[in-house]
Sequence to fold (290 residues):
Amino acid sequence: MSVSAVAPVSVVEGAISNNGEFPVLATVGEYTIYPMQICSEEQIAKLFVKICQRGNPVLQGLPAADLILLGKAMYRKSMVLGLSQVAVHNGQPVAVGFSWDAAEGGVWKDCGIDMPASMAAHAACGKAAFDSLPRNESVFFGAFFGVLPPHNVKLFGILAVSSFIMGNELGFKDGFQFTLLPTLDKRGGSVFAKYGKEEENANWNVSFAEIAAKNEGAVSDELLELNGNLNISLSTMEFMMGDEWMGRAATTVRLESAQAIREPSTKSAMTQLNWLKTRSQSANMIPSRL
Fold:
């Protein structure tokens, strides 16, 4: 793995300009949530780079240029449904959430960008997560949610929950997510913990050693050395919309109750869906899920 890393910074280059084209989805204290379309691919990629390495063992230390490409791939992948969001503070994007239909596959599939060689271990982990799904029809994938320090971590939760609410509204039956972050995996009350009935909230692990055994060369060696773990969950949307899952989502980002995360997330989700419907109708192109 390369030792080249991105120096930590507090802002992302290039303030956004709205001009009334994009709706305010929700206001959370001094933060404003917008559809991700308010930002360029380059802006989102630069923000992603400054967030994605924190705690992620397979991304830490990778070349900045390669991480930029991953950020651009995430942006393009999420634009298919157009449900992703960004939180803005003083004109600067500071938190981001990517999501898409799991049927579209991993981040590099059909995104139009060639995967850098340095991303092979990361891609192997993603493939292992997708391959482990017991069912893959009508599954909404919460791909990545993150906040630029030192901004409020509750944005992470609101963007994530808003994403799954939109997935539910569009008729997806299940919500799928996974993490490589050991701190998130072990946090008390986390949505990645074992709870609920297996048929409504399945949660399982895939070790880096298992993934390494299905790969070879540098990828296998890197994963064995890292000795990490994927924590994966597949939950019915009905369960995710309930108080138990919402309460755990709130606890994960240190909010006090299910309602504390449900209210801003629902407002954000429904405003974005209504905006997307209006855009589709005005263009005489109504996506089947809208």
User: Anything to note?
Assistant: The mean pLDDT is 88. The first strand starts at residue 26 and ends at 28.
